[in-house]
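User: Just a sanity check before I run the rest of the batch. Below are the structure tokens for the first item. I only need the designed sequence back.
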């Protein structure tokens, strides 16, 4: 006998087909007496119909299959918590049960924002259960919107002809790097090449730490520093490395240029009121020791705390190779230094100790 998870897996298959068609990936399956009656997937874009949600499409198909607008005894499995429109339709259809996957904190009408199914003034009661294959349903939605945001950014920040941009899927398998990307491409010295950076932690944190990687490394080196409570982390990928654009010519890469670009970037954050002009902690890898010294000398008083990040987790070759699909991406490596062979970055315990030490300098 099919379980709730089995039916939800079929709804997920419908959701994936919606994603392939460019629709928000939500799918639904209508079941009666242990048999699949109908299915539906999101199609408001294709049908030019704001009501063409997965649930509505499944209900319409189910009504046609059963020859009745009342769907007594039917169960509906849907990958996302129904909205108010869909919940109302389900109640009108007299469904016996609704099972959903992921909760929807923005528009969910089965308990997240409101709960129409438990509204005492309505004359029908439908049993509701949420959370079936919730992680899978949520992951599908998150991947869809992440890819769509990436496409929007790509269109808004076109790639220069003299540079390359590492495909996002090269980084997709790094499960310990789940951080929101930020980009900048219009700094005075930047020449239109896009720089990727992390900005994690509260804006009003007691300590803000600028994390500087060395040649062949990128912000992944500091993955365990990000998220330490009470610490704000700014971790750029220098242009030519990580998820930043990769100019094709070696001559484009110089330590002085990177130094000036970092200072312009910090100034931009201050202008946007995302960073105070006060002192920062500067945390660097061993490979970036000379670079950190140049940066601190160029901005006297800006970095009163300069700290060396220990390396204690062992090599992670896949992460260091990810930014460089082939030799065409490697101009910065040829100009500034190769991929490190035995470097991984601080362990979580080392990162926590570093953060406590940095915050200690800025304690009132």
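Assistant: Here's the designed sequence for the first item:
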């Amino acid at each position: 006998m099919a379980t709730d998870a089995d039916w939800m897996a079929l709804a997920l298959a419908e959701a994936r087909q919606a994603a392939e068609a460019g629709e928000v990936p939500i799918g639904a399956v209508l079941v009666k007496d242990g048999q699949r009656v109908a299915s539906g997937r999101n199609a408001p874009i294709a049908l030019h119909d704001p009501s063409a949600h997965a649930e509505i499409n499944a209900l319409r198909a189910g009504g046609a299959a059963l020859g009745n607008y009342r769907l007594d005894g039917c169960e509906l499995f849907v990958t996302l918590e129904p909205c108010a429109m869909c919940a109302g339709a389900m109640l009108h259809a007299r469904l016996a049960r609704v099972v959903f996957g992921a909760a929807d904190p923005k528009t969910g009408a089965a308990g997240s924002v409101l709960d129409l199914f438990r509204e005492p003034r309505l004359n029908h009661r439908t049993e509701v259960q949420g959370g079936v294959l919730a992680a899978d349903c949520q992951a599908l939605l998150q991947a869809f919107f992440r890819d769509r945001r990436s496409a929007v950014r790509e269109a808004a920040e076109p790639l220069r002809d003299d540079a390359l941009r590492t495909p996002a899927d090269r980084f997709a398998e790094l499960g310990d790097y789940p951080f929101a990307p930020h980009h900048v491409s219009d700094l005075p010295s930047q020449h239109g090449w896009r720089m990727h950076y992390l900005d994690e932690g509260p804006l009003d944190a007691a300590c803000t730490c600028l994390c500087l990687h060395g040649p062949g490394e990128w912000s992944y080196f500091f993955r365990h520093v990000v998220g330490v409570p009470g610490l704000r982390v700014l971790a750029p990928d220098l242009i030519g490395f990580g998820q930043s654009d990769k100019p094709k010519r070696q001559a484009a890469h110089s330590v002085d240029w990177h130094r000036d670009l970092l200072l312009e970037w910090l100034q931009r954050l201050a202008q946007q009121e995302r960073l105070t002009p006060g002192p920062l902690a500067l945390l660097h890898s061993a490979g970036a020791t000379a670079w950190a010294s140049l940066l601190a000398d160029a901005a006297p008083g800006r970095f009163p705390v300069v700290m060396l990040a220990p390396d204690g987790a062992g090599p992670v070759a896949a992460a260091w190779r990810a930014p460089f699909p082939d030799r065409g991406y490697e101009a910065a490596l040829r100009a500034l230094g190769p991929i490190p062979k035995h470097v991984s970055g601080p362990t979580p315990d080392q990162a926590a100790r570093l953060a406590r030490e940095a915050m200690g300098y800025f304690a009132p």
